[in-house]
Amino acid sequence: MNNNQILDKSWNKSNYFFHVQKEGKGSKKYSKSDLIAYINSRIIEKIVVKTVAYSEDLSHLDMSFDCRLPKDIGVGVKTFVASGKSSSYKCEKIAEFPTISHQFKYLKCRDLAVAVSIARNQRILDDVGKYGINLEKSKYHCLIRIHGGAIIHEEPYCLVNIDNISPLNSRGKIGTWEDMEEKNCIHFFDGINRYKYYKSKSVLQKYFVFDRENSIFIPIAIDQDPFCLEEKLDQQSLMSFLNNQDKNKTVADLLREFEHLLARN
Description:
Elements: H1 13-25, H2 41-51, E1 56-57, E2 67-69, E3 73-81, E4 89-96, H3 109-131, E5 134-146, E6 149-156, E7 166-168, E8 185-189, E9 194-198, E10 203-209, E11 216-219, H4 226-243, H5 251-264
Parallel strand pairs: 3-5
Antiparallel strand pairs: 1-2, 2-3, 4-10, 5-6, 6-11, 7-8, 8-9, 9-10
């Protein structure tokens, strides 16, 4: 499902593209990949806030949503690499429960799936009430990095449908709770979304299913030597700066003013 309702007229598409492409362009500072850009998830959170009018950054808070948009829309922001050249899904962490995991220790798999889902839902509902979020309009915003660029995928931010939980095997087919008793992961489906819970890590993951062909695509050109490019740009900026300064100023004064200029930019 790709409901790009966030990306309406309040979204500055050109600015979003610009910032994603700029971050991706310099990704070889952090990654060896020539084909898939590295972009930190925190950066994408900031880009969403910067490019959607009247949005509020919540990423510094320990809560379910990373930002709040107009009309009290809560957004969970994700960025990840697609598993393969043609893959259409990826499993990503959506919650962890280190402080209450001891409560789950001796539960059978079906009871464990229910208990984890209850904890997940309660956390969301607590945040919805505390921060005035409209859950029905809320969603995940995902920047999925692929060869040559990235695609934008969005889907509803749903509670787990506890009444409809059923077991799956690791391949996403119908399974049994008994088959998972001795395993570290349990897999389950709630009629809408597929989930995975790691017993040892107390981590709940969700499968994000996306459509490569019909999603917004952002081309990203990765610089092979971003450090060299930045050095050249700084040198050009310095020369331009010096050519426009008072010739009577000392070198120390000029360098200090140039440092202030770079800090502002």
